[in-house]
ABC transmembrane type-1 domain-containing protein (Elysia marginata), 111 residues
Amino acid sequence: MNASRKVDLIGLIKFDDERITEVVVVVVVVVVVAIVVKVVVVIVVVVVVVVVVVVVVVVVVVVVVVVAAAVAVALIISIMIGVVATTITFIARIERLRSMCLCIKNKPRHT
């Protein structure tokens, strides 16, 4: 066997027998690096998606809490307005009845 025998790799480049192992090592390293890069990219994309989803969920929860608080405040204010209006109406009716009673009480009687 001749040590300087050429090996045709994919029909494009001819390498010596001794260089085949170097080429294989380089190809394996390139493939491993490509796989690692793909895995890292997938992990980064997953982390970014998870962070975006968490941020969206937090924003939605904050908006819901703020809207619920606003509705609760509006409800409390409307209940207070209703209580005040009912109290004023009740006091007005009592005053009207009192004035009617005073009118009847102070009316002169015919004998």
